[in-house]
Write a structure and sequence with these properties.
It comes from Virgibacillus indicus. The protein is α+β, with helices and mostly antiparallel strands. The chain is 27% helix and 25% strand. The longest helix has 13 residues.
């Protein structure tokens, strides 16, 4: 178990168990072939629409039912030169 900020989440928790508790639509699924530049554009487009994304969730084909391979956050984008 991982414990942080008084929350306990089992290490093997799947996204389908966690996402229903996420408020709003502040994440988007992308495929593993999405480039860093495409990821930056996705964040920018959402900001342009007045919606701020917190994270891009990476699966093989961008399908929510697939295994999570990685996460890109807005903070990660700030570190790109």
């Amino acid at each position: 178990m991982n414990i942080e900020n008084n929350y306990s989440v089992p290490v093997e928790t799947s996204l389908k168990n966690v996402l229903p508790f996420e408020e709003g639509d502040n994440y988007k699924f992308i495929g593993s072939s999405t480039s860093v530049y495409e990821a930056v554009d996705i964040f920018k487009r959402h900001i342009g629409k007045g919606r701020r994304l917190e994270a891009l969730l990476i699966t093989r084909n961008g399908n929510p039912s697939e295994k999570l391979l990685g996460i890109i956050t807005a903070w990660d984008i700030l570190e790109i030169p």
